[in-house]
Each structure stands twice: as C-alpha cells, then as structure tokens.
Amino acid sequence: MDYKKSNAPTNTVTRNMMDLCEDTGNVYETVAIIGKRANQIGLEMKNELSKKLQEFASYNDNLEEVFENREQIEISRYYEKLPKPTLIATQEYMEGKVYHRNPAKEKEKLQ
After folding, report:
1. 8 Å CB contact between 83 and 38
2. Under 8 Å between Cβ of 6 and 83
3. What are the phi and psi torsion angles at 24 (to 5°)?
4. Which residues have C-beta within 8 Å of that of residue 73, sequence separation ≥ 6?
5. How close are the terminal C-alpha atoms of the chain, in Å?
C-alpha cells in the first residue's frame, strides 16, 4: 500500500468512539479491529524501510562511510514524518476500507 497518498492526519485527533463503533456495536471490537490493522501496516512499513536501507548497507567497517551516508538519513526522516500506523488504520476504518468479520457472530446467526 502507498502510505504517501494516505489522507490520515499526522497528529493525534480526538474522535467520538460512538461514531467509530457504529458498524460493530462494540467499542472494544472496533479497537481490536483497528489495532490489528495498525499492526499489519506497521509491519509493512518496517519491511519496506528495511529493504530501502538494505540497499545502502555497507559490509565493511569503514567509519567514514557511516557518517557520510546521507541517503539513509533522508529515508529514515521521511518514514518518521509519515502518519503513524494507528492513525492510518483508523482513517481506513472510517472510510470503510478495512474488511473485518467476527466468526463468533457468524456462528450465532447460523444457530
């Protein structure tokens, strides 16, 4: 996913939890859904950052190269400025882009 195009805020936003839990009817279930999605996003971002930084990896111990590698610093700063995974996940949930299901509720409907 392209997090650069996300319209999630970069700062913390106060939200009405009752608006967030309209779909599920349960605040805790909504928080669990957003939390799981945030973990997925965080893992994707971490893997993407690791791949980009791996391109600049130096396998010899040259102290001068460690201090001169500005590309790594710029990439790291860029990722620090991105919205946090929880904010992205909350925005996705509010826009209806997160698919979720509760097997326990589905089981109750079948009985």
Report:
1. no
2. yes
3. -95, -30
4. none
5. 38
Q: What is the pLDDT of residues 18-37, one digit of tens each?
A: 888 888 888 999 999 999 99
CA dihedral 69, 75, 77, 83 (to 10 degrees): -170
**Which residues have a Cβ under 8 Å from the Cβ of 11 and sit 6 or more positions away?**
none
User: Higher pLDDT residue, 16 or 4?
Assistant: 16
Cα separation of 30 and 64, whole Å? 49
Q: For residues 36 and 23, what is the distance between their CA atoms, to the nearest angstrom?
A: 16
Query: 56: Cβ–Cβ under 8 A, 6 or more apart, which residues?
Result: 69, 71, 72
- How confident is the model at residue 62, as a pLDDT? 59
**What's the confidence (pLDDT) of residue 89?**
92
Q: How far apart are CA 83 and CA 73, in angstroms?
A: 18
> What tokens does 12 get?
């913390």
**Tokens of residue 74, six digits:** 């710029």
